[in-house]
């Protein structure tokens, strides 16, 4: 874990949700009132018996997927009477961590899977929680950053788990506590996957797609890259997303919207930055979303590495599950 050089100066960290969306419950209103609000377009159904008011928003589509998911959490928090703790990807949402896919279900730690008012929108987990595993975020109980990281690393596919793990470490999860728990979790479900994600997690990633691009080369067996690589240039210290300082190979992720609507000065500043890295002897690989499927990115980078490294490359099986 944590081969990176640490956080880039000025890098932003994920911040927890401060307030859940206001929702209405069908159980609090006569059936006719609920139907009237829906017909008038004033409410939007977001979950079992849960409605989000949209009359104050000109365009209901303005609610993004994370807002809708948090509204479902708010509805479950109000509907369930049993003491629950929001967990897994629902906890990640509450902590403000990025997710590759916004969850359609609400995950909770619950004393029992059985419930007289069970509904398919809730996923119940019965694992034991220690007092240190529980925190309060936005007025509801939620698993700690460390426990959320481990639960997501075990439940999600490795690439999705690494996105959560990188962000949780950047948000302040204790790396030593995480590493100790992962090491001790011999009997946990998907323990091998969880330990692999923890082993490669790095707080230096500043976006989900920086994590995904790094995951591709990790999965394909390239050497462990370093995040936030500092390079001394004539412009001063320039930080690259990730790469190998020892091989003078860097990777820069360019999202589709990075330059959309940018003024020419912004574009030229990025070009100067790119040129400065090259003039400092670095070989810079620009990564776009099309590079993230399959092994195209690894195939582009591999010829830039020493021949001895190329011969030793083998896929990492613990990241293939």
TrEMBL record:
Q: What is this protein called?
A: Transcriptional regulator, AbiEi antitoxin, Type IV TA system
In its UniProt entry, the species of origin is given as Cellulomonas gelida
User: What are the boundaries of the region Disordered?
Assistant: 1-20
In this chain, composition skew of type Basic residues spans 1-10
